[in-house]
Here is the input.
Amino acid sequence: MFRLSSANSIANFFARVLAGSLFCAAIALVAQTSPNETLPAGAAKEKAEAACLTCHEARIIVQQRLTKAAWIKEVDKMTKWGAEVDPKDHDALVDYLSANFGTDQPAYQAPKSASESKTNSKTRR
Here is the structure.
């Protein structure tokens, strides 16, 4: 095993155990409250998944509400940063994103976590 030789070593040991426990709890909480979201069906859904979901979770995209011009800038920026978008698919991808995540779409509402759903169902009773 190991030997703790002083009060300072004992405090250091417990501080590390506590930090590790808090880190694990934070990871579990994030995993519980970040449900997986998917992109909606559409002509360029597969192109969007291939270009965007390599680096981002779908929730980053589905919460956006951008104009078509802003989507063009965003796709161009991401392409410069390494997103693989075939030039012949560029317009179809922008059309898909602006149709599904444009300014004319309702505001994004995050899905409820399992714990929020339980709390809400108890309050409704």
About this structure: The radius of gyration is 22 Å. Confidence is low (pLDDT under 50) at residues 28-34.
